[in-house]
Amino acid sequence: MTNLASAIVTGASSGFGSAIVHRLVKSGRPVVALARRTDRLLELADALGHDMVLPRTVDVRDHEAVTRALSELPEPFASVGLLVNNAGLSKGFGPIQDADLQHWREMIETNVMGLLHCVRATLPTMITAGRGHVVNIGSIAAVYPYVGGNVYGGTKAFVHQLSQNLRTDLEGSGIRVSCIAPGMARTEFALTRFDGDQDRADALYDGVEPLTPEDIAEAVDWCISQPARVNVSFIELMPTNQPFGLGFRKPSERNER
Question: What is the average pLDDT across 145-163?
């Protein structure tokens, strides 16, 4: 039986979320895995063991569903000490004047309200225990603008600012708060952004070696593994060939101007 407090990981069915679940379980930490795709969650639990992964099919946009999923958790999942807010998406990739209003709504409801729903459902347990860690997955889009990043970047700027304000609100509680901001990474993220257009998603990575989900999972693990006196407030990770935002040039283009 593990001595580590359990973790809640949102968006756990693929990409960063799945890699984070794998890394936490490898460290001996039980994980409540939240996502919308039941089949993916069951595959994750089958692979890592149902004694270590508790799948919960949840859309984080639904506050009541989040509350139900995280209430009355069985052992060893009940003593929650870590929340990784990973669930998020980007829809569309054009200038704001051509954007689809529904895309804005999906991003704001998932990236902003979904994160808040999970924080609201989890913090009381941590506060009562006098310890815990909230890790929010942000993005370099919160800092470096690029064409088409408009509302998505705004939602991630919210994540970064909320992380800082959580630290202020939780002063003296024993709870740590961290924000991890990845750059370009190869996951299903681009496929979602382009509504399933695989060729368009693949073209985004042409000529660049992007980050991997495992890179982000290792950053999360390092962050939470520091002594209790250490709060890692912010980590930014980018591919070597991506200095800022999406404004990189392919290696073959570097000497063309």
Answer: 93
Confidence (pTM):
0.89
For residue 95, say if its preceding peptide bond is cis, omega within 30 degrees of 0.
no
Instruction: Specify the residue for token string 């982000």.
Output: 216
**Measured between alpha carbons, how far is 179 from 171 in angstroms, rounded to an integer?**
16
Tell the residue number behind the tokens 């990043």, with chain if given.
149
**How many Cβ atoms are within 10 Å of 36's Cβ, its own excluded?**
14
- Give the mean pLDDT of the chain: 89
Catalytic residue among 144, 146, 152, 205: 152
CATH code at 113? 3.40.50.720
In a domain, 249, yes or no: no
Looking at residues 222-250, what average pLDDT do you find?
A: 83
146 part of the active site: no
Is residue 184 within 8 Å of 10, Cβ to Cβ? no
Residue labelled with tokens 């190869």 = 186
Q: What is the pLDDT at residue 245? A: 56
Specify the residue for token string 């939780």.
170
Q: Answer yes or no: is 162 within a domain.
A: yes
Please say if the pLDDT value at position 205 is more than 70: no
* Total domains in the fold of the chain: 1
1 within a domain of the structure (yes/no): no
Which residue in 79, 239, 240, 96 sits closest to 154, CA to CA?
A: 96
Instruction: Dump pLDDT digits (tens) for 56-82.
Output: 999 999 999 999 999 989 999 999 999
Range of the domain at 76: 6-244
The pLDDT of residue 250 is above 80: no
- Whether 212 maps to a domain, the answer reads yes
Alpha-carbon distance of 235 to 165, in angstroms, equals 17
